[in-house]
Predict the 3D structure of the following.
Amino acid sequence: MAAHGDDARGSALVVLATFGVAALGTVLAAPLIEQGPVPLAAIDLLLHVAALASLLVLPAFALDEEVQAKSLPAQLMPVRG
């Protein structure tokens, strides 16, 4: 959705999101390393629940083909063959 049909931009956004989640996990886990594996597992569980929630929620925001065709400029339209 955010890439508007540009595969390179979409790939860059995926890499950015991956690095962002890794950084967020590091920020959350760093103060808890000395407390043992249970708090670290809780942070891991939190990140997995957030990932699952995004898989359930994001498809609701997907545009159907008619709306997408009307909103995208012609040069960004996917080529069908």
Notes: The mean pLDDT is 79. The chain has three helices and no strands.
